[in-house]
Amino acid sequence: MPKFVGHLLYRKDKSKALYIVHLISILKKINQTTMDYIELTLSLNNSRGFEADIVSASLAELGFESFVYTNDGLKAYCAASLFDEKGLIKWKDSLEYEIKVEYTTQLIKDKNWNEVWEKNYFSPIIIGDQCIIHSSFHHDIPKVQYDILIDPKMSFGTGHHETTSLIITELIKMDVSGKSLLDMGCGTGVLTILAAMKGASPITAIDIDEWAYENTKENILLNGYPDIEVAKGGAELLIGRKFDVVLANINRNILLADIKNYAACLSSGNTLLMSGFYETDIPAINEEATKYDLEFIKFEAKNNWVTTVYLKK
Question: What pTM does this model have?
Answer without folding.
Answer: 0.68
